[in-house]
Design goal:
This protein has about 250 residues and is an alpha/beta fold. About 35% of the residues lie in helices and about 15% in strands. Helix 8 links the parallel strand 5 and strand 6. Helix 2 crosses helix 6. The termini are far apart.
């Protein structure tokens, strides 16, 4: 049937989409990796003249790449935990469809059967070799684009989330100026990237009463020091039951 469809009706270049394959046997299971992938897809979509971006998630239960931040993820609960990072797809204004495969063979068949609809990334060799794509995105996709255009494409949340963030600021921050701070305080992984809590507490206390600013702290609830909540110029977003997508919108 796929061959018959191609013979009868071909897809024009302007209707083709970019299919971004996120293989969890090659890329770590993390929000950061998904964000990098989404930014790279914006450049590739433009270069290939694709009409949109679809995402294919591939997870092999026996070959997950899980860093220490997400060590709780196992082959038994990976599908359940996908919900923690899939909202990141909403920072791509060209995001269309989402596919989830638990079989490498089925994903390969899907790509082969839909070559008239998609330009797939990563390419055949990188996908077959399970290449880690972070450095390819940074060095081979984003950097050349930056040199050529003086900028890189902007990621942005979907309008629904942008409007939600504006309403949040209107209700909880105005007339103060909102300043959003990502609080990272992970004791297990890349500790040098953590905020220096004591310095930030001192800074926030100094700002209170001096500047018309309210600081909105985003990030994992367990990583936010309870002392922040005692400051009158600070809001902890997770206290309002936000999720990853809402934090990104803020």
């Amino acid at each position: 049937y796929p061959k018959m469809r191609k013979a009868i009706k071909s897809t024009s270049p302007c209707q083709r989409r970019l299919l971004v394959i996120h293989d969890f046997s090659a890329q770590p299971f993390s929000i950061g990796e998904m964000l990098v992938s989404q930014e790279g897809s914006l450049v590739l979509r433009e270069q290939y003249g694709a009409s949109g971006v679809d995402i294919a998630i591939l997870y092999d239960r026996q070959k997950l790449v899980v860093d220490r931040v997400h060590g709780r993820i196992t082959e038994d609960n990976v599908l359940f935990n996908l919900g923690a990072i899939l909202p990141v797809a909403q920072v791509n204004p060209f995001f269309g469809s989402l596919f989830v495969f638990d079989s490498r063979e089925r994903l390969e068949r899907f790509v082969m059967d839909n070559t008239d609809l998609y330009t797939a990334w990563p390419g055949l060799h990188s996908f077959a070799d399970r290449k880690y794509l972070y450095y390819e995105v940074m060095n081979e996709i984003l950097y050349p684009y930056l040199i050529k255009h003086g900028r890189i494409p902007t990621i942005s949340c979907v309008p629904f989330l942008v409007n939600w963030a504006r309403d949040f600021y209107q209700e909880h921050v105005c007339p103060n100026i909102p300043v959003t701070v990502l609080v990272r305080n992970n004791p297990f992984f890349h500790q040098q990237r953590n905020l220096k809590t004591e310095c930030w507490l001192e800074f926030l206390e100094y700002c209170a009463g001096r500047y018309p600013v309210k600081f909105v702290l985003i990030g994992t609830a367990s990583e936010i020091d309870a002392r922040y909540r005692g400051l009158k110029n600070v809001l902890v977003a997770r206290d309002f039951n936000t999720g990853v997508d809402q934090d990104l919108a803020l």
